[in-house]
Write a structure and sequence with these properties.
Elements (H helix, E strand, L loop, with lengths): L2 H24 L9 H19 L2 H23 L8 H15 L5 H16 L1 H10 L2 H20 L13 H26 L4 H11 L1 H14 L4 H26 L4 H23 L18 H24 L2 H12 L4 H12 L5 H27 L1 H24 L3
Helix pairs in contact: 1-2, 1-4, 1-5, 2-3, 2-4, 3-4, 4-5, 7-8, 8-9, 8-13, 9-10, 9-11, 10-11, 10-16, 11-12, 11-15, 11-17, 12-16, 12-17, 13-14, 13-15, 14-16, 15-16, 16-17
């Protein structure tokens, strides 16, 4: 390792130590502060440099010495009569020594991320304690169910296809379940801590992350008893529907990055159209959403299995339609699937386009057809649950959106 590389690692080590030390100095830590933490990370880096010539025992010896100094420092604090049952600072000291040592053989980016993460964890101590105290049994259950879905069920599934069309892969299907549940869980967590009483923009965004169809139904029901909230409900529903297209773009980028440049642009145009409609809707009526309707836990195992089955059925139906009915069959499946759910058809046709089994042009047209069917379905929900006045308000926006979608289908180049 040349001199420039060594100095770079020492500089990063010093900077990370100062970052963490500054945070501990703000909390008046009695064990280590703005001077001690930089020395700890530098010690780790020097141990890593020496280990290149004298062996790994240097790092081990340094870590043991560091642990001993932590114990001695705590004895001094205890003798002064200042008892702190927490060991966060002590653990942070050992971690930062490890970060300093890792900067020598490992990628710098990893060391920087870990060191920065330590600083962030220390800085947000009050907020994290408040969040932990606010988590109820139901919310903790949601987190644990996501752990089961992603870390227990997923790894044991076979990663191979078993159908005649070569599309039903249990591992890949469940991986998409984890992706969808993860996005919905993110919205649910934000809703639990910020969404109960929020502005209509936040309510719409969270509704789109969790489920735009469920959000439409919830707000349509609400205005039955409170018609003065009709304009607010329209705004929330339009914003939630806008988020759907950004959610679709995320799904495309994750499942089909190679076809994003060809599938993404027309979907992005629809996202832009809906964004303009959402801006218009945001200028109407009140801005407060009062209290968002109660949202369901998106990690329920039954719901996850149901989506997995739905995704598998749609994937198989699209492949069969392509094989026996051609592109018209794919469009038919897209419209039927899109009536209630955009995720399954988006993932299905994107995966097929990524594998070269359908063209990118057919893929984005199928997604767009599904989105228009979904818009029509939400209009029907608004009419049935919210009444004809809500339907008329919603229809004004959705007609413009469907007109833009139809123009894309006709005029966007193949």
């Amino acid at each position: 390792m040349n001199t420039e590389a060594i100095l770079l690692r020492l500089g990063i080590s010093l900077g990370l130590g100062l970052l963490v030390g500054l945070q501990k100095e703000r909390t008046a830590s009695k064990v280590a502060g703005i001077r001690t933490f930089p020395l700890i990370t530098l010690l780790g880096t020097l141990a890593g440099l020496l280990a290149q010539h004298y062996g790994g025992w240097v790092v081990v010896a340094g870590f043991v010495a560091m642990a001993a100094m932590v114990v001695i420092g705590n004895f001094a604090v205890l003798k002064s009569g200042q008892i702190d049952p927490g060991i966060t600072t002590e653990v942070a000291m050992l971690v930062m020594f490890g970060v300093g040592a890792y900067l020598v053989p490992g990628p710098l980016a990893v060391g920087i991320v870990v060191g920065s993460a330590v600083a962030v964890l220390l800085f947000f101590k009050p907020q994290m304690h408040a969040m932990a105290n606010a988590i109820g049994v139901r919310d903790f259950t949601a987190i644990m169910q996501f752990v089961i879905i992603s870390l227990i069920v997923l790894p044991v599934l076979p990663n191979s296809t078993f159908d005649p069309y070569g599309v039903l892969n249990p591992f890949k299907i469940w991986l998409m379940v984890v992706l969808i549940v993860g996005i919905s869980l993110t919205g649910y967590v934000i809703y639990k801590f910020a969404g109960h009483r929020s502005g209509s923009v936040v309510a719409g965004i969270l509704g789109g992350l969790i489920s735009s169809t469920a959000t439409t139904a919830s707000y349509a029901r609400r205005i039955r008893g409170t018609p003065e909230l009709r304009v607010l409900a329209v705004r929330v529903i339009i914003i939630a529907s806008t988020v759907v297209f950004f959610r679709v773009l995320i799904l495309i980028s994750v499942t089909g990055p190679t076809v994003l440049r060809t599938i993404g642009p027309p979907i992005a145009v629809m996202a832009a159209v809906f964004t303009l409609l959402a801006l218009v809707a945001s200028l109407l009526g009140p801005t407060l959403a009062r209290q968002m309707p109660e949202q369901k836990n998106p990690t329920e195992l039954g719901g996850a299995i149901l989506f997995g089955v739905l995704y598998g059925v749609v994937l198989l139906a699209v492949a069969a339609a392509r094989e026996h009915l051609g592109i018209r069959g794919i469009y038919a499946v897209s419209v039927l699937s899109g009536l209630t759910d955009m995720d399954a058809i988006t993932l299905s046709v994107t995966a097929l386009a990524h594998e070269g089994k359908v063209t990118s042009a057919d893929a984005w047209r199928a997604i767009l057809a599904a989105s228009m069917a979904n818009i029509a379905f939400k209009s029907g929900i608004a009419a049935v649950l919210g009444g004809w006045r809500l339907f008329l308000h919603i229809a004004l926006f959705f007609i413009v959106a469907c007109g833009a979608g139809a123009a894309l289908l006709v005029f966007w180049p193949w």
